[in-house]
Amino acid sequence: MKLLDKIFKFNGGIQTNPKKDISTKNSIKCLPIPSELRLPLRQHIGNMPKLKVKVGDQVLKGELIAEADGNISAAIHAPTSGKIKSVEKLLIPHPSGLPDFCVTLIPDNKDQWIKKAPVNWKKLGIEKTIKLLLNSGIVGLGGAAFPSHLKLGNNRNSPINTLIINAAECEPYITCDDMLMRERGNDLIKGIKLVQSLLGAKQTIIGIEDNKPEAYKIISDLIIKESSVHIKVVPTIYPSGDAKRLIFLINGIKISKEKRSSEYGIQMFNVATIVAIYRFIVHGEASLSRIVTITGNIKEPRNYEVLFGTPLQSLIQDTGGQKIRNNTFIMGGPMMGFKLPSIDVSVTKTMNCVISAEPEMIEAKKEPLPCIRCAKCAEACPVLLQPQELFWFSKSDQFEKAQNYNLFDCIECGCCSYVCPSNIPLVQFYRYAKSEIIAQSIAKEEADIARERNDFRILRLEREKKERAERNAQRKAENTSEEKSKLIEEKRAEIAAAMNRIKDNEKIK
Amino acid sequence: MFNQQSPFVQKAPTVTLVMMLVMFALLPGVLAYIFFFGIGVLLNLTIAIITALISEYFVLKIRNLPVKLFITDGSAVVAASLLALSIPSIAPWWIIVIGTLFTIIIAKHFYGGLGSNLFNPAMVGYAVLLISFPAVMTKWPLPASHLLDFNIAQQIQIFFYGTKEIIDSVSSATPLDYIKTQIFLGKPFDLNFTNGMPINSYFNASIIISLSFLLGGVFMWSKKIITWHLPVTFLLSLALISAIFWLIDSSQYLSPFIHLFSGGTLLCAFFIITDPVSGPTTPKGKIFFAFGVALLVYLIRVFGGYPEGIAFAVIFMNICVPLIDSLTQPKVFGHE
Question: Long-range contact list for A316-322, CB < 8 A, 24+ apart?
Answer without folding.
Answer: A316/A343, A316/A354, A316/A356, A318/A29, A318/A31, A319/A294, A322/A297, A322/A298, A322/A356
